[in-house]
Design a protein that fits this description.
single chain; 172 residues; alpha/beta; Rossmann fold; eight-stranded mixed sheet; two-stranded antiparallel sheet; 5 helices; globular
């Protein structure tokens, strides 16, 4: 069962009780990883890591590490990598493209084309422009758009439960 919707805030909650935007987005990334299949794995053995890369000025701080602490993805421990150079992140299974890279993400995506790397960003137009998952905040809720066409072309299979929860699925 998938749980993605952050409950509406009720009167008795305080701002400290509510997860922040990037805590929710980190939880989404965790679930995207859990419900995506990589056809051929970069994991040669059970000791290898599942890597999540962040390129550009990243907004998460320690939130990603906290979210993935003591968790595994497809039976592999998770490692968070940050870089300003995309080449350092090519071995990752997921790359989050920071909003600071929005002005030249159209140069980034071709470098990742046909690699089994799930690309995620939270700036407008990402999924429609060839990214795989775009996170959006609408009405104080985090929602997402999936570009299934791009994911399939990269050899990734996104679980149908996840597709059903998407605000929009791009298939062509």
């Amino acid at each position: 069962m998938l749980f993605f919707i952050v409950p509406d805030i009720v009167a008795e909650t305080t701002p400290l009780d509510r997860p922040g935007e990037y805590e929710v987005k980190a939880a989404f990334i965790y679930n995207f990883a859990r419900f995506t299949e990589w056809k051929s794995s970069n994991h040669a053995d059970s000791d290898s890591t599942f890597s999540i890369g962040v390129i550009g000025r990243e907004p998460f701080g320690p939130i990603l590490e906290n979210t993935f602490q003591n968790k595994t993805i497809h039976e592999h421990p998770v490692k968070i990598k940050r870089a300003q150079n995309l080449q350092e992140l090519i071995p990752c299974q997921i790359i989050f493209i920071s909003e600071s890279e929005q002005s030249h993400f159209e140069k980034i995506l071709p470098l990742l084309a046909h690699r089994q790397i799930l690309t995620i960003a939270d700036f407008p137009g990402f999924a429609e422009s060839g990214g795989m998952i775009e996170l959006r905040v609408e009405e104080n809720r985090v929602r997402f758009v999936i570009n299934q066409k791009e994911a399939k072309e990269a050899g990734l299979k996104i679980n149908s439960k996840l597709l059903n929860l998407a605000q929009k699925v791009i298939t062509q």
